[in-house]
Design goal:
TIM Barrel; 3 domains; 31 strands; alpha/beta
Length: 760
C-alpha cells in the first residue's frame, strides 16, 4: 500500500481553518494572539481553540498550535499559564522555536507533542539528534535543502523516531529562517518575534541589471514533485500561508488533496495545477528542492502574478490575450470560489451547546454537581464536606469561596469562566444548595476542571505546573576576559601579542580544505574553532571529522548539530550568538541537557532584557561588543540581481571561490552591503558595525567573556588603528582603564548600537 503523507494546511483565522478542513487537510497549524511567528495574521483567541479542536477532530483533522517565537524572561509566567490550559485540551502538537520553551515542555509537559519550527533551521543530522534529546517528535526541514539532503535527514529522523515535514507551497524567504535580523536591526521589530517587515519584498533603487526588487523570490511549489518527495520518505507536506484568506487556503489545499488522492489511487502525480495559479502567487519555482539555484528563482515584482500567468498561457496557445480582460475574468472566478467556499464552510459552523449545572448539598455533606449538556450528562462531587462559614471563621480566609445560596452571581461568575469551548452556561441551579456554606477555593476549581475535561473529551486533568524559578546571582566578582574572532590565517599574526582568547571562524564550506584547517589549528594551538550557523551535508560531516581529529579543549558553535556532537564527544562548548540565547531557561536547557559551558547572549536583546537573565550555576555568559552586523544569510546568489554575472546558476565554484561585494539602497535610503567571501554563503550586512561600549559599565559582574569580531567584512565603518592596537584598546576598555572609551570613539567611526536600547 502506498504510504500516505500528511497534508498540513495553514490557518490564520477560524474561516481559514474551516476552509482547510473542508478542502481535505489532514492537519492544520494555527496561532493564538500571542507567542506566534505570524503576529500580523488574524489568529485565534484561546476561547476559540476548543471550537477549532472540536471541528477539526470531528473531521479527522489534527491541530498543531504555533508558539514559534523567542521568549523573553518576563513572559514565561504567562506562557506557563497558557501551557497549563493547553495540556488539558486535545491539542495534537505544539510548534516551537525557543530552546528554553523546548526544555520546559520536555520536562514538565510530557503529554504535549513537540514539533520543531522552521525557525530552528534544521539542515543536518546533528540538529535532529539535538532536538530529539529535547523530546521533539517532528522537525520542519530547512526550505533551502535539495532532495538528496532531505532524503538523508529523513533517514536520520526515522532512526530516531522523529518525523519530517517539508514546505511544498507558498512564500519563500530569501534568507535562512531564524537567523534573519533585517527587521530587528532596521525596524526594531524582530522576525524571531513574529514581526518580520518583509524587507526582501521591498523596492530598492534600480540595480545595474535593471531590477527594482532584487531580493524577491518567486513562490515555492513542489506540486509536480510529489513522487520524489514520497520516495524520499517525508511524513508531512506543509503549505505556507497563515497570512492568506480562506479562499486561498481552500484552493491550494483542495488542489493538493486531489493530487494526493490521484497519486494514492493510480501512482500518477501529473495533476492539473491550474487552480493554484488562480489565487495569489508570484509564479512558482522548485529551485531549492531540485538543487538548481539560479536567476530564474527571482521575480522583479512582489505582487500577485496570476493575471500575467494566464495572459502568457493564452498567448502560447495563439489566443489574443488582453491583460485587463484576463484580470476581470480572474476576479470573477475568484468571486465564485469565495462564494462556493463560504457555502461549504457554513456547514461547519458550530453553535455552542447549552450547559446546565445543578449544585446540591448542605452542611456535613459533599458538594454534588449535576451536569447536563446534550449527550454529556454526568455527576461530580467534592472530596471534602461542606461546612458553615460561622463554624470556621467569621471571615473566610483568603483562598476560600463562600457558597451562599442567595449570592448566585458569584458562583455564576465562576462557572461561566469555564466556558471557553463549545458549551455555554445556560443555567446554574442553586435551589438545592444550603446557605452560608464554604468550600476551599481549590475544591471548586478542581470540580470545574474535571467538568470541562469530561465535556471536551480531553486528557485526564493534569495538575498545573508552577514555573521553576532561577535566581540571578550578581554578587560574583567576575572579571571579563577579552576574546577576538578572526576569519583568516593572515589575521593570526595580529593576535600574537595578546593574551585574549582567539576564536577562528570556519567557513560554511570547508570539506575540500579540511586537512588545511586541521593543520592551521594544530600549528596554532591557541586558536579555538568557531563553527558557523549553517553546515549542510558534506560540510557538517567535515565539521565532525575536524572535532574528531583535533579533540579541542573548547569550541564555539552557532550550529546545534555541532553542539550535540561536541556534547557526545565530551568537548566543552559555548553557544554562539546565532543560537539565539535570549532567556534564562535557554541557558538552563543548554547547561542541563547538553553540558554547555556558556553562551553568547543574543545581540537582539536590550539592556533591560539582558538584565532579566539568570545564568545557571557554573555557566558563563558572553557578549559580542563589536562586530559586523550580518542581517541575513542566503543560499541563493544575492549579487546576480544587482550586478552582471556570466553564470545563470550557482555552482560549487561560486560557493568556494567567489569574493564580491556590492550595495543596494532600500526604500528608506539605507545602504545594505551584500557580501560574498570564499567558502561562505551570501550575506546582507548593515552599513555599520555594532559597537556597544556602554555594556561594560552597565552590566558589571555578568559576563565572563567580551568579544570583538575582526572578521573582514566590507561596510562603511572606518577604523584608524592597526588590528593589534585595536585589540589592546578593547582590552583596556573592558578592565575599566580611564580614557579607553573616549579613545575608541575616535578610533572607530560609523557604528550602531540601537538594538541595545530597543531590544527584541
Amino acid at each position: 500500500m502506498t504510504k500516505k503523507l500528511e497534508l498540513l494546511a495553514p490557518g490564520g483565522d477560524i474561516e481559514s481553518i474551516k476552509a482547510a478542513i473542508v478542502a481535505g487537510a489532514d492537519a492544520v497549524y494555527c496561532g493564538l494572539q500571542h507567542f506566534n511567528a505570524r503576529n500580523r495574521a488574524t489568529n485565534i483567541e484561546i476561547g476559540d481553540l476548543e471550537i477549532v479542536l472540536s471541528l477539526a477532530h470531528a473531521n479527522h483533522c489534527k491541530v498543531f498550535l504555533t508558539i514559534n517565537i523567542l521568549i523573553i524572561d518576563n513572559e514565561f509566567n504567562s506562557l506557563i499559564n497558557l501551557l497549563n490550559k493547553l495540556v488539558n485540551t486535545s491539542l495534537d502538537g505544539i510548534i516551537v522555536q525557543d530552546l528554553g520553551l523546548l526544555y520546559l515542555l520536555s520536562k514538565y509537559f510530557k503529554t504535549l507533542e513537540i514539533h520543531a519550527s522552521t525557525q530552528l533551521t534544521t539542515h543536518n543530522a546533528g540538529q535532529i539528534k539535538f532536538l530529539q534529546q529535547l523530546d521533539t517528535k517532528r522537525v520542519n526541514l530547512c526550505r533551502e535543502l535539495n532532495l538528496t539532503e532531505i532524503e538523508g535527514l529523513v533517514a536520520v529522523g526515522k532512526q530516531l523516531d522523529v518525523s519530517t515535514e517539508v514546505f511544498v507551497h507558498g512564500s519563500y524567504c530569501i534568507g535562512f529562517s531564524g537567523i534573519c535580523y533585517l527587521s530587528s536591526v532596521l525596524d526594531g521589530k524582530s522576525g524571531n518575534r513574529g514581526r518580520c517587515g518583509q524587507h526582501c519584498r521591498d523596492k530598492y533603487q534600480t540595480t545595474a541589471r535593471g531590477k527594482n526588487f532584487p531580493l524577491n523570490l518567486k513562490d515555492n511549489s513542489a506540486f509536480n514533485d510529489l513522487h520524489i518527495l514520497h520516495q524520499a520518505g517525508v511524513d508531512s507536506l506543509k503549505i505556507e500561508g497563515r497570512m492568506k484568506q480562506f479562499d486561498y487556503v481552500y484552493t491550494v489545499v483542495n488542489s493538493w488533496r486531489k493530487l494526493l488522492d490521484q497519486f494514492y489511487a493510480t501512482g500518477n502525480s501529473n495533476s492539473d495545477d491550474t487552480d493554484i495559479y488562480r489565487v495569489f502567487n508570484r509564479t512558482f519555482t522548485n529551485g531549492f528542492l531540485t538543487g538548481s539555484i539560479n536567476k530564474e528563482m527571482f521575480i522583479d515584482n512582489p505582487r500577485d502574478s496570476s493575471a500575467l500567468q494566464f495572459t502568457e498561457i493564452l498567448d502560447k496557445h495563439g489566443d489574443s490575450a488582453d491583460l485587463a480582460e484576463v484580470k476581470r475574468d480572474l476576479h470573477a472566478a475568484r468571486s465564485v470560489i469565495k462564494e462556493n467556499v463560504k457555502a461549504e464552510i457554513a456547514a461547519l459552523n458550530v453553535t455552542k451547546k447549552p450547559l446546565q449545572v445543578n449544585l446540591e448539598g448542605c452542611v456535613g455533606e459533599l458538594l454534588r454537581v449535576e451536569v447536563f449538556a446534550g449527550e454529556h450528562n454526568f455527576n461530580l462531587c467534592s472530596k471534602n464536606r461542606l461546612a458553615t462559614v460561622t463554624s470556621v471563621t467569621a471571615k473566610p480566609k483568603t483562598g476560600k469561596l463562600q457558597c451562599n445560596g442567595l449570592d448566585k452571581s458569584r458562583l455564576y461568575q465562576y462557572f461561566e469562566k469555564l466556558d471557553e469551548g463549545t458549551f455555554f452556561l445556560q443555567e446554574l441551579n442553586l435551589s438545592k444548595l444550603g446557605q452560608n456554606l464554604f468550600l476551599a477555593q481549590k475544591e471548586i476549581e478542581l470540580i470545574g476542571k474535571k467538568m470541562m475535561s469530561r465535556l471536551v473529551g480531553a486528557q485526564q486533568n493534569i495538575t498545573p505546573v508552577k514555573l521553576p524559578s532561577i535566581t540571578a546571582k550578581r554578587n560574583e566578582n567576575i572579571k571579563p576576559k577579552l576574546s577576538v574572532l578572526i576569519s583568516s590565517i593572515e589575521q593570526i599574526a595580529a593576535c600574537s601579542e595578546t593574551d585574549a582568547t582567539i576564536y577562528f571562524q570556519l567557513p560554511n564550506n570547508f570539506h575540500h580544505n579540511l586537512s588545511s584547517f586541521v593543520a592551521t589549528f594544530t600549528e596554532n594551538n591557541n586558536l579555538t574553532p568557531w563553527f558557523p550557523a549553517i553546515l549542510i551535508g558534506e560540510n557538517y560531516a567535515a565539521a565532525i571529522k575536524l572535532l574528531q581529529q583535533l579533540q579541542p579543549k573548547q569550541i564555539v558553535t552557532n550550529n546545534s548539530g555541532i553542539a550535540f556532537e561536541a556534547y557526545k564527544m565530551g568537548i566543552a562548548w559555548i553557544a554562539g550568538p546565532y543560537l539565539n540565547s535570549i532567556n534564562s531557561y535557554t541557558m538552563l536547557c543548554l547547561r542541563e541537557k547538553f553540558r554547555c559551558a556558556g553562551a553568547f547572549v543574543s545581540n537582539e536583546l536590550s539592556r533591560t532584557q539582558i538584565g532579566m537573565i539568570a545564568k545557571p550555576e557554573g555557566f558563563e555568559l558572553h557578549y559580542s561588543i563589536y562586530h559586523p552586523m550580518v542581517l541575513l544569510t542566503s543560499r541563493q546568489c544575492l549579487l546576480a540581481q544587482i550586478e552582471e554575472c556570466g553564470k545563470q546558476s550557482m555552482d560549487d565554484d561560486c560557493f568556494d571561490n567567489c569574493t564580491r561585494s556590492t550595495t543596494s539602497k532600500n526604500r528608506k535610503n539605507t545602504t545594505l552591503w551584500i557580501n560574498k567571501s570564499k567558502g561562505n554563503y551570501h550575506s546582507i550586512c548593515h552599513p555599520h558595525h555594532f559597537l556597544n561600549s556602554d555594556i561594560v559599565t552597565d552590566m558589571p559582574n555578568l559576563f565572563s567573556g567580551i568579544m570583538i569580531d575582526l572578521s573582514l567584512v566590507e561596510n562603511e565603518t572606518t577604523v584608524t588603528l592597526e588590528p593589534a592596537v585595536l585589540i589592546d584598546l578593547f582590552a583596556r576598555l573592558i578592565v575599566g582603564k580611564k580614557g579607553a572609551k573616549r579613545e575608541l570613539s575616535f578610533a572607530v567611526k560609523g557604528t550602531n548600537n540601537e538594538q541595545y536600547y530597543v531590544g527584541i
